[in-house]
Automatic annotation (TrEMBL):
The keyword Membrane does not apply. This is Aminotransferase. GO terms for molecular function: transaminase activity. CDD domains: AAT_like. InterPro entries: Aminotransferase_I/II_large, AspAT/PAT-like, NHTrfase_class1_PyrdxlP-BS, PyrdxlP-dep_Trfase, PyrdxlP-dep_Trfase_major. Its cofactor is pyridoxal 5'-phosphate. Keywords: Aminotransferase, Pyridoxal phosphate, Transferase. The keyword Ligase does not apply. Its EC number is 2.6.1.-. Residues 34-376 form the Aminotransferase class I/classII large domain. It comes from the Bacteria. Belongs to the class-I pyridoxal-phosphate-dependent aminotransferase family. It comes from Oceanidesulfovibrio marinus.
Length: 386
């Protein structure tokens, strides 16, 4: 078990550029400017009513005390039942660790799994914070380039070439942030068959469109750490509720870390999570239908504008568009779009070297705002190219 927090390491951690964009956009709004937000990956929906009522009931009934350090057994049983229903896999509730959001679950995984100098294979591009979690746990991310024509998803052959004597895990993310694509099940199985522990970020599971289906890595191996939560699918970002499904051999270590660092997850949020899993299927389907309408519009419109989308995204709520013909510096381009078009977008460089030249657009906003925002982007790009 490794954990390191040195001043030099903190100095190496780069800013989360999407937050730089958001904070500048908020400053512009305070000055009276109208900004369309297509940068942030947060559902624009309010939490479903059954979730709200469950939280209120928990407060009214005094469920505001510490819970089991792994999380309430009722919630862990509901999570296990959800994975059985969705994927046909058996999960022992005793091997589920409930956390205050999915980010702590990522950190706990690497704190339990890594020693100083161990490597974790990560795709490039990738979610911006993955390498930071690995480094904070004493490890090193080993970035493996992925291809635009593959939807920036892994191929097992590339992973095998990157394995060294220091490799301790492979990190998967499907549906992915920033790209919104899915790893095909046969390729997921090929990755699992390599034999390394697989860390699978499944936070966008359920947000899949166009007749596609997501798969959990648990369908292909038990040698895995599954990360998931309630923020994205159930629009519960502020309730900070996530979980980790871990191999039995690691559960006690994870529990000790939780006891020392967090004591227990948020009690009220856990009751809300039970309601989300057991009462909100119709709410989720309604949100998904709206997301899908936005997705189809955004993909078509971005292509019309002249941005490249090699593989149509069918998951999450992102479109990762190739903007290289408009400039090689995505950070500068994103801020230029913000300053001149008043639209917030995320620079691809936020997601690793492989994301440079791309711009991430989020459709977690109303169709009306997406239309307004892309109108502005189109006018800006025409002016720039003119």
């Amino acid at each position: 078990m490794g954990f390191i927090m040195e001043r030099a390491l903190l100095d190496e951690i780069k800013p989360f550029y999407v937050m730089d964009v958001l904070e500048r956009a908020k400053a512009m709004e305070r000055d009276g400017m109208d900004v369309v937000h297509l940068e942030v990956g947060e559902p624009d929906f309010d939490m479903p009513e059954p979730v709200r009522q469950a939280a209120i009931k928990a407060l009214n009934e005094g469920h505001t005390h510490y819970t089991h350090s792994l999380g309430m057994i009722e919630l862990r049983e509901a999570i296990a039942a959800d994975y059985a229903k969705r994927y046909g896999v058996t999960v022992d509730p005793e091997h589920i660790v409930v956390t205050n959001g999915t980010s702590p679950a990522i950190f706990l995984t690497f704190a339990a799994l890594l020693e100083k100098g161990d490597e974790v294979i990560v795709s490039d591009p990738h979610y911006a914070c993955y390498p930071n979690f690995i480094r904070l746990a004493g490890g090193e991310p080993r970035l493996v380039p992925t291809l635009e024509e593959d939807g920036f998803q892994f191929r097992a052959a590339a992973i095998r070439k990157a394995v060294t004597e220091k490799t301790r895990a492979v990190f998967l993310n499907s549906p992915s942030n920033p790209v919104g694509t899915l790893l095909p099940p046969e390729r997921m199985k090929n990755v699992a068959d390599i034999g390394l522990p697989v860390v699978s970020d499944e936070i966008y599971h359920g947000l899949v469109y166009g007749g596609q289906r997501d798969h959990t890595v648990l369908e292909f191996t038990k040698n895995c750490f599954v990360l998931n939560g309630f923020s994205k699918l159930y629009a519960m970002t502020g309730l900070r509720l996530g979980y980790l499904i871990a191999p039995e051999v690691h559960t006690r270590d994870l529990q000790k870390l939780c006891q020392n660092m967090f004591i227990s997850p948020n009690s009220v949020s856990q009751w809300a999570g039970i309601a989300a899993l057991t009462q909100c299927e119709e709410d989720v389907e309604q949100m998904k239908a709206i997301y899908d309408e936005r997705r189809q519009y955004m993909v078509a419109r971005l292509r019309d504008i002249g941005l490249g989308i090699a593989v149509e995204p069918f998951g999450a709520f992102y479109v990762f568009a190739n903007a290289k013909k408009f400039g090689s510096d995505s950070y500068a381009l994103a801020f230029d779009i913000l300053e001149h078009a008043h639209v917030g977008v995320t620079p691809g460089t936020d997601f690793g070297q492989g994301g440079e030249g791309f711009i991430r657009f989020s459709y977690a906003n109303s169709l009306e705002n997406i239309e307004r925002g892309l109108d502005r982007v189109e006018r800006y790009l025409k002016t720039r190219m003119g």
